[in-house]
């Protein structure tokens, strides 16, 4: 059975979507079958895959779960691009989010969508929005693990503590299997004093309590360029430091399961 991993954070602009996109392709490189789920109404991951024209999105599936309707055929909503499968999103997910607030047992709607798919994939990666609303609660209720992305900036660090508290609450109240796979430092510029200071602070605060990924994602223009061209780094900039960092992250994720 596959593993569902949520990519999450309290703050936007910390590399969640880039991580979901490139981790999916890096896992694919190591022979894993991966499904990426865009669970953000902004649909940035969908844009990365170049699938803004999708007819059926995760919002439609969520509405079907809410209304106790049958899901459409998988080939209408699961798409494939260069070996990685994905479920697109759209602004319509906002409507589903609003309806979730009125539904009994609404925290488990995404789980109802993804659980039937677990046997078909080695990994299901959920890209999430930067909030602690109904969508992220659903993602945590569906996930086995959370990768927490952190930009080594002060405000991102402040949000980290709140996010970790929420994961703990979801684990105790909704999803007893939920674990933190680790903290991933993104957009790192090792030349700056602030980056070094925040990195040391993360290590001092969480070492021995929460896994900190050895892979640190560097801050480079290659990331923005690859997203512009809707290409994963493994194809756009193979051999670059940032591409290798995501490959190392995939190796750590796979090793964590061993």
What does this 3D model show about the protein?
This protein is an alpha/beta fold. It is built from 11 helices and 7 strands. The chain has helices spanning 16-29, 44-48, 58-66, 93-100, 109-114, 134-142, 154-173, 193-206, 221-228, 233-236, 241-257; strands spanning 3-8, 34-39, 79-81, 84-87, 123-128, 145-150, 179-185. The protein has a 7-stranded mixed beta sheet, with helices on both faces. It is globular. The two termini are 14 Å apart.
- Provide the spatial order of strands within the biggest beta sheet: 3-4-2-5-1-6-7
Low-confidence stretches: none
Instruction: Calculate Rg over CA atoms.
Output: 17 Å
The topology string of helices and strands comes to EHEHHEEHHEHEHEHHHH
Distance between the termini: 14 Å
Instruction: Write down how many β-strands occur, each being a DSSP E stretch of 2 or more residues.
Output: 7
Number of helices: 11
Average predicted confidence as pLDDT: 90
The fraction of residues in strands falls at 5-15%
What is the structural class?
alpha/beta
Offer a few descriptive terms.
single chain; 258 residues; alpha/beta; seven-stranded mixed beta sheet; 11 helices; globular
């Amino acid at each position: 059975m596959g593993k569902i991993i949520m990519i999450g954070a309290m703050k936007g602009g910390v590399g969640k979507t880039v991580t979901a996109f490139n981790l999916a392709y890096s896992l694919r490189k190591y022979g894993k079958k991966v499904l990426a789920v865009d669970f953000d109404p902004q649909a940035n991951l969908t844009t990365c895959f170049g699938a803004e024209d999708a007819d059926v999105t995760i919002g439609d599936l969520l509405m079907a779960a809410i209304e106790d309707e049958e899901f459409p055929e998988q080939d209408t909503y699961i798409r494939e691009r260069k070996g990685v499968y994905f479920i697109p999103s759209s602004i319509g997910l906002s409507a589903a989010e609003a309806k979730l607030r009125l539904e009994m047992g609404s925290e488990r709607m995404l789980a109802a969508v993804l659980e039937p798919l677990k046997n078909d994939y080695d990994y299901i990666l959920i890209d999430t929005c930067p909030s602690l609303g109904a969508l992220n609660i659903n993602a945590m209720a569906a996930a086995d693990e959370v990768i927490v992305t952190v930009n080594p900036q002060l405000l991102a660090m402040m949000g980290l503590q709140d996010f970790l508290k929420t994961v703990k609450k979801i684990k105790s109240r909704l999803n007893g299997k939920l674990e933190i796979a680790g903290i991933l430092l993104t957009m790192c510029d090792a030349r700056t004093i602030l980056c070094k200071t925040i990195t040391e602070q993360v290590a001092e605060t969480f070492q021995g309590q929460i896994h900190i990924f050895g892979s640190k994602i560097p801050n480079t223009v290659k990331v923005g360029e690859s997203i512009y061209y809707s290409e994963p780094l493994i194809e756009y900039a193979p051999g670059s430091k940032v591409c290798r960092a995501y490959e190392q992250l995939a190796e750590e994720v796979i090793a964590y399961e061993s």
